[in-house]
Amino acid sequence: MVETFQQTFGAPLWLAVVLASGLKVTLILVGGSLGMMFLTWYERRAIAYMQDRRGPNRVGPQGLLQPIAEAIKTMTKEDTTPLEADRIVHFLAPVVMLAATVLTFAIIPWGNLFPSDLSVGVLFFVAVGGLHTLGMLMAGWGSNNKFALLGGMRGVAQMVSYEIPQVMAVIPIVLMTGTMSMQRIVEAQSGFGGLAWNVFTPVGLFAFVLFFIASLAEGERTPFDIPEADSEIVAGYMTEYTGMKFAVFYLANYMTNLAICFITTSIFLGGGNGPGVNELGGFLGGFLSLIYFFIKALFLFFIMVLIRATVPRLRVDQLMGFAWKFLLPLVLVNILSSALWVSITRWDQQAQIFTTWFGAPGTADAPNFIRLGVAVAVTVAINLGALVMVMGLNNRASQEHMRATDEELALGL
Amino acid sequence: MLKTEELRINIGPQHPSTHGVFRMLVTVDGETLVDLKPVFGYLHRNHEQLGEVNSYLQNMPFTDRLDYFNSMINNHAYARSVEMLAGIEVPERAQYIRVIMDELSRILNHATALGFMLGDMGAWQTALLWGLREREKILDLFEYVSGARMMCNYARFGGVARDIDDYFITETRKLMDGLPHYFDDFEGLLTNSEILLARARNIGVLPKDLALSYSVTGPVLRASGVPYDIRRAEPYAVYDRFDFDIPVGTVGDVYDRFLVRIAEMRQAYRILEQAFQQLPEASGGHINPKVKQQSLKPPIGEAYARVESPKGELGFYLVSDGTGNAYRYKVRAPSFINLTALADMCKGYKLADAMVILGSIDIVMGEVDR
Amino acid sequence: MALLLKGELRSKLQAELPAALDVRWANQATAPETAEHAGALPVLIEDDAVVHAAQIVPVAHFLRDTLGYDYLSNITVVDYLAFSIMELVYQFYNTTAGGADVRVRVRIGRTPEACIVPSLSPTWPGANLQEREAYDMYGVVFPGHPNLARVYMWDEFKGFPMRKDFPKTGDKYTHVTGE
Amino acid sequence: MTLANRQGTGVVVPVERNDQRFRAGQGTAAGLSIVFRKFRKALFGKPNSDRSDTEGQFNVQYPEERLALPEAYRNMPILLFDDATGHELCTSCFQCERVCPPQVIHITQAKDPATGKPVPSAAEFIIEYDTCMSCGYCAEVCPFDAIKMDHDYELSTSNHPELDVNYNRLLRPVSYYETIAPTLWNDVRESAMKKLQNNIKRRPGAIGVDHGQKVGAKAAPAAVARPAEPAGGGASAVAPAAKRASVAAIGKSMSEERLAKLQSIRAANQSKRGGAGAPIDTAHAVEADVAVQPSTAQVAAPDAATPGSVAPGATGPVAAVGTNMSEEKRAKLEAIRAAKRAQEGE
Fold first, then answer.
1. Are B332 and C73 in contact (CB under 8 A)?
2. Is residue A285 within 8 angstroms of chain B, CB to CB?
């Protein structure tokens, strides 16, 4: 991007870099918010059909202009700030949330074109995701409202306890592809005519499911939407926000979901790869990869909407229990099994016995099927064993008493 | 030990999940609920004072506004108590029509009540909208026969305002063909969902003896294990001619109430089937023609007639002084008395559970505040 | 526990708890025959047991423990202005045997001192709100009630709206506190 | 097979919670599959039109598609006038005013300008549409089928005084009511028209026609009539015009002993009047007889309530009920009020 500016306009380096990054940023902001608008429309139509009704179909063709109508409505609404609220914190909360969300778009590879190729892409994504929680806490504390305070506290508790499984779930993929840069991870999945996606390996599939569940919590989707649980604490941390600031919160929320769908697609479902992308090559191939990329992302979002239409919300303590007692053990076991997968399929000098038993490690185009078979068997056995053991543990655990007895209440436990 | 402070929160009267203008003053320690004080009166319309100023017939449309989900059942209960007071005899066909309307109203009430409870749990209104779809079909039938969807004003002293004709019967038959699919969909959707089990099992437990001493009635009492259903304990209208079972819970928690209400919808379906089979033989027209409706002057005396409404025992206590107006008109509202048990059920659970427990009792503020 | 017939409770109380029966109303005249006394006030119906106010708690326990009427369905207050009497009607049902109710009546005066009935809330918490409603609408005081406060009206409301002598027309309340 | 005394059996069934079942996500998966099936059916399904459908789309796109209203639908009361003669059916017998629970109907009886005698027609008829709760009692008790319940539900307006609907906006031609509720009107047409002819004979001059009705206007006036368009694919089927729904003729059958009572009343009136005024028609006499001894509470109540509820901006000045009654009736009213005050005072 920078070189093209230099040659075509003969601009000096600094001007080219400014122009290139300026173009990228505007592309991301415009793409992100348009994506957010499309997602809100897409979600409301999908949920409507699930509930035997039609959803927005009045504003514009098939209701496509509905999000724009909503945007105008929220912009024109009066923007109030509670009386004794901490004004600066109250004002900055949506800004921090939106900033964190937009930053995550920096490393998302749209099909083959990618804004910036950080060598530590995945780590950057999760690190910036953490900032998102800060915005929630600021909103909760800054609006001087009991419901908002509760919502903020719940939000922090949920985000902190779900970031660990989310990060750990990606480690097996980083282990298998050897790098953390998104670009290389996407390229590594272009074998077998574009279908060598990580999700088709048992370790990858397991990691995909765990990552998706953990990122449901990050994006505050049902069954993990307790920070903004409207039936209990009115609107959670967003209670005291109206007009423009509420719209920014909404924008941040849906852009996080969009970012999560894009990241999951590029890491697990092979980003822009698909049958026919390498054969076409050049501009046409890039365009086709972009289409594949969007189809996969929307399919993932459809699953999010399906879950939202069916499943009730978890309570705060159940949510914590689920993260620490269910997701974390499975994720750790998955890392173990991914290490075994890499060792079985690739080692030859490091462990002579593997080569004696299974033969030399195969290359990309001539894989050694014995090694693959053994690796699959070992990893599936470990993962499923852990799953059944953890589920047994959880099933028994749910019988213990739910209710704080009067003595506990008196003690104020 | 870190000294923590209890937080007093006002939930209501304007809150997304209090089912109307109902306020709970909640003291919360962290997320655990320490104390809950219900506050009423926001929808008080001195209904009983109106009962004493209006004539008996003029009071009938006001009973629609008590439990505005089941105006048919309110009318039926009020008509029964005036008939008991004035000694009016109701023809058989009218009793069958009243039973048909009651059971249709029971199905629509349970469908929406469960939907709202699941909405409180966070299950984004899918179950509620399926329930509302069935409710719309039933309301169209009520509109066809009584003239209005929710404010039916359909019962008269000695029968019902209009007879049902074969168009109504064929349409209800069609509706009943669709109901089993709806029941199966509803049951399949959430009954075994792990998250619902986590949110509903062992929550808001009301043991059997406590339920009796709280004078709780209806599905909440039966979920606690007491098989007390007025249609079986003190049969009225023609309920003694139908075979239907009484679903009863074992633990008395939110999950049992959920299951009891679904089972009761299926039993209501069974009653409707039998009622339509026996309807042709029922004789006597839809109303007792000898009753002067608007200038009815029952003899001096008192009467208490009660009906099994989907929320519990709905009774009307009337004292007549021989004039055209009731001397004393009291409504025994099931939601009002079921609410006494709310504070005891919610103590010790989390704030989120309090919403679900309130939803599981299924209250309507029109009936609570009268 | 067998079901009680209409007048049977009085005879049972006569046997077990003679002190409880309020003999003042034993032979009160029944309803005037014809209805042309349109204005005549309803009679004090005789076949149910009328109990002294102070005895209501032991009678309720007697009903529940020996006769099996464990479900207190309804507490109604009726204000007989002409007889200057407030009548409380307690209705009990038998949840195992089913069938009709048994009514126990308490008749008290209308003046604030006489208008006192011991509360059933300690053993029947279900009566809590019904007694608060009786207090709010009729001014019947229930000693022993956990928190006897108005349930519908706001706490500063003066007067008892459902009493027969509470003015129906004109807005008594506003002009009293209007200034 | 009479089922009069068959004792219904019913067994107590504990609901099964199957707590012991090993829960590993099957329940949630089942729920998701049901919702996906619903999604597929609704997305590609046709808008359903049958009441037994539980899948597909159920919305009625309101302004474009409308559900056909059933005949018995009742929204707000309207008064009928005969198309041919233009005469209104109402004879101001005050039955509807007496039975109306919120007491929102205010009628003043028309006067024969020459003799000052009351005439069976209404001079002014006001219904407070904002308080009326469409319970349908007025339509049920009206002995002349003059007041019926309309099917128009688009009545929202920003001008509140306009909601005290006076006479000329209440009137609708009989043909309009025939279009919206054919079978209900067929049941009562003969008796209503016979009574109307009776009343027209006793209405001197233009009384009963002068409320802005369009005499002889066979077609229903455009402004008022909006027969419901057939519903395009609406959820409930089009209300069948041909279906017979019998109207409850509450207490209207004239048995022999009532006729005997009629003769005695007529004889009593004859002797009392000594034949001075025009003999009041039997139908009117029966109504007067019923009207005279309403229970005391009601006569006092409207008196007290009426001044308060008189519509401030009403066009015709509404005389409070009872101010323009004949002297002898007024004396009786005073007697009843005194009795009432005495009873309350004690």
1. yes
2. no
Phi, psi of C166 (to 5 degrees): -80, 125
Q: How far is C143 from chain B (nearest CA, A)?
A: 19
Q: Is B36 helix (H, G, I), strand (E, B) or coil?
A: strand
Burial of B14 (0-12, 13-18, 19+ CB in 10 A): exposed
Q: What is the 8-class DSSP label of residue C84? A: T
Strand partners, A317: none
What digits encode the pLDDT tens for the residues B159-217? 999 999 999 999 999 999 999 999 999 988 888 888 888 888 888 899 999 999 999 99
- Do β-strands B246-248 and D12-14 pair in parallel, antiparallel, or remain unpaired? parallel
Measure the N-to-C terminal CA separation of chain A; round to a whole number of Å.
Answer: 59
Nearest CA in chain B to D300: B53
Kind and range of the H or E run holding B354: helix B351-361
Task: Return the structure tokens found at C78.
Answer: 């009726």
pLDDT confidence of residue D227: 33
| Closest Cα in chain B to C75 | B332
H-helix or E-strand containing A137?
helix A121-142
b/e code C42-65 from CB counts within 10 Å (16+ = b):
bbbbbebbbbbbebbbebbebbbe
Give the CA-trace dihedral at C156, C158, C160, C166, to 10 degrees: -140
**Structure-block tokens of residue B287:** 């109303």
Going by their DSSP bridges, the two strands B159-160 and B155-156 should be labelled as antiparallel
- A vs D, Cβ pairs < 8 A, gives 48
For residue D337, which residues of chain C lie inside 8 Å, CB to CB?
Answer: none
Burial of A17: CB neighbours in 10 Å, binned 0-12, 13-18, 19+: middle
Q: How far apart are CA B356 and CA B352, in angstroms?
A: 7
Total-model pTM: 0.84
Gap between the Cα atoms of B225 and A407, Å rounded: 27
Q: Do chains A and C touch (3 or more CB pairs under 8 A)?
A: no
Other Cβ atoms within 10 Å of C34 Cβ, number:
10
3 state SS of A402: coil
pLDDT score at A52: 86
Place of tokens 């009432």: D340
Q: What are phi and psi of C103, to 5 degrees?
A: -110, 130
Torsion sign (Cα): A316, A321, A326, A331: positive
Decide if B41 touches C, using CB distance below 8 A.
yes
Q: Which two tokens stand for residue C140?
A: 């019947």
Q: Smallest Cα–Cα separation from C162: which of B111, B136, B50?
A: B50
* Cβ–Cβ contact D338 with C under 8 A: no
Parts of chain D with a pLDDT under 50: 1-6, 216-254, 274-324
Question: What ipTM goes with this model?
Answer: 0.87
- Run of H or E residues at A60: none
